[in-house]
DNA sequence: CTTTAATAGTTGCAATCGTAACTATCGATT
DNA sequence: AATCGATAGTTACGATTGCAACTATTAAAG
């Protein structure tokens, strides 16, 4: 269709962004309405809530692909709500370990109910096949991300 | 792994956003450095450049999943560079048809070279299988988006 | 040890964003 | 044809963002 060899509809960053935005907007509207949570806050809550052990802010950033200042502010926000508490690392006092409080875990559980319901809607929308393919494709990217995180890069 | 039934690593909005962000950041750095282009500007340029006919601002917005104010500003930016020209619709004067100028098409061609090179890198990074799966999955979402666009929704 | 480089996290500030309100125009209803 | 509701696009303004610079701390190099 294009004169030269480039096909925008096959260009991954464009397609991914479009899909991610489409899918995120509706869900964000839900938790924003119910909890006045911002996107970075939800993503931080999710990262912490899904982890069995405490994480540092940097961990949250790499796990969610968020800029460190975004994480920093989200952490402050969640702390003000008393959904999260920080604790200094004894060996390395630059680090702070982040953990959800009881209230935070409760909120997380409620949010995951919303999330599950939304995931089910998406499932209906794109079908089992689409879901499986997407999952496999995202896994491939996630492997690449992990690989890239060993050899560092500024985010 | 999670206590309840929710698995963040299987939650589509989170995964998509993460992947999209990872993939977009590196590419954005390239065209920002070479052309001082913002992301919305690149996306608008891309939408127009890949289309055979003129588009309205609304078209650009739905095609790229960008908010209309973002599109509006990106259009102004591209117009100032003289990469894009507007023309009023004769039948409906609310509409303006957007087209790239010669300079705009040239820029688009240069940008698509960058894009192709980047796409090749991604291809290497995630492999043929990952690429195919991802493509199939994204297609499923894109179909869903098109469907959703018939029955409207505020973006 | 002392100096230097690297890392974790925060913050000031300018740039960007999205909501809501606005202008202008069109189509439908009466 | 006057009114009302919808749509295209813009803009004012408060909120959010990311860059760069900063503090504090640790690791590495000499």
Automatic annotation (TrEMBL), chains A, B:
GO terms of molecular function: DNA-binding transcription factor activity
SUPFAM superfamilies on file: Winged helix' DNA-binding domain
InterPro entries in the cross-refs: HTH_MarR-typ, MarR/SlyA-like, WH-like_DNA-bd_sf, WH_DNA-bd_sf
Domain HTH marR-type: 9-143
UniProt cross-references to Pfam families, sorted A to Z: MarR_2
GO biological process annotation, one example: response to stress
Gene3D superfamilies: Winged helix-like DNA-binding domain superfamily/Winged helix DNA-binding domain
PANTHER family attached to this UniProt entry: HTH-TYPE TRANSCRIPTIONAL REPRESSOR YETL, TRANSCRIPTIONAL REGULATOR, MARR FAMILY
Record's protein name: Winged helix-turn-helix transcriptional regulator
Organism: Ensifer oleiphilus
């Amino acid at each position: 269709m294009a004169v030269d060899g480039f096909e925008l509809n096959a260009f991954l960053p464009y397609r991914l962004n479009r899909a991610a935005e489409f899918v995120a907007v509706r869900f964000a509207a839900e938790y924003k309405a119910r909890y006045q949570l911002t996107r970075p806050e939800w993503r931080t809550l999710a990262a912490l809530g899904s982890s069995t052990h405490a994480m540092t802010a940097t961990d949250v950033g790499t796990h969610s692909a968020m800029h460190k200042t975004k994480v920093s502010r989200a952490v402050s926000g969640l702390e003000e709500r008393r959904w999260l508490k920080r604790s200094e690392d004894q060996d390395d006092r630059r680090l702070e370990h982040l953990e959800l409080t009881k209230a935070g875990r409760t909120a997380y559980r409620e949010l995951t109910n919303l999330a599950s319901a939304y995931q089910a809607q998406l499932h209906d929308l794109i079908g089992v096949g689409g879901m499986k393919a997407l999952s496999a494709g995202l896994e491939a990217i996630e492997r690449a991300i992990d690989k890239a995180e060993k050899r560092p890069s500024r985010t």
